[in-house]
Amino acid sequence: MIETLSTTEDLPWGERFANWNELTSRAVLPTRARCHDEAGFQASALVLGSGTLQISTGTSWSSYSAARTQKLIRQSDPERYLLGVVRSGRPRFSQGNHDARLSADDLIVLDSSQPFTSHHEPGKLETLILPKALLPLPAAQVAPLLAQRLPGNTGIGAVLARCLQEIACTDSRYRGADIIRLLDTALELLAALLAHELQSPHALSPESQQHSLLARVQSFIHQHLADPDLSPATVAHAHHISLRRLQQVLATAGTTPAALIRRKRLQQCQRALLDPGHGGCTIRTIAARWGFTSHAHFTRLFHATHGSSPSEYRASHGSLLRTPTSPPHD
């Protein structure tokens, strides 16, 4: 798996911007960049992924602009799409006849084979980098959506944005193989989002539709774990499918709706029991926080999963909940 961290922090002041432009041109796409304060330029980028799909998380503390010119395209065109997810800042992109000023949670797609310009203020941008050949939509269908603001806070766009945020998270909770699988899921979600924006859901293959629905279901369950009324029936209803169809979708992931809800809730409770920030919370409170309405039922499930009761589990990991300045919790 690819994992590359680039930063201007350790570079000589006079060489920071030039080095940054060279690094990003290699990692993402060759562009011609400009900055009013090249000596004081500050930025960092983390690239994760495989030789096929990558995600770049770029954070800039300086303003700059970049252009993908016809000359650069003639010199080298990797034939890629770039999906940008704005996390902070107000970047602006232009390609073809389209021009978009974006805000946090907005999405945008660019084509490496056509000239474009961008202006970046201080902020954070995640970029999914993918070969155009991998997207199961013809370039002619994608073209009307280039450099258009796409919603990243509702519907499929929100699921896609959350998926990319999980991949880009730097707390190392995912292994390399997990990141590769999540990138594949992000690709399927991107195809579903573009098809939806084009009002052409049937442009996707049945397999792509299946992967997209599975990702949406998993994300919905994760977001509603704290709701005690969350059930297979409410999940199916939220996605306008039958309970049988929901069971079929999750069977492809080797689980059932009820088992997935139960497992995710238990995982959240386990984390809370190990979290020093929850050291003062009772086990009953933690269980209720994650949707368990019966304390006895939660205790039985936890014991069956971890081989000990919640209180025994917390006690056996008590050292994780203590600090030198705080007394042990009972």
From TrEMBL:
This is Helix-turn-helix domain-containing protein. Residues 307-330 are annotated as: Disordered. Transmembrane segments: none annotated. It comes from the Bacteria. Residues 215-316 form the HTH araC/xylS-type domain. The keyword Transcription regulation applies. The lineage of its organism: Bacteria, Bacillati, Actinomycetota, Actinomycetes, Kitasatosporales. Keywords: DNA-binding, Transcription, Transcription regulation. InterPro entries: AraC-bd_2, AraC_XylS_family_regulators, Homeodomain-like_sf, HTH_AraC, Tscrpt_reg_AraC-type_HTH.
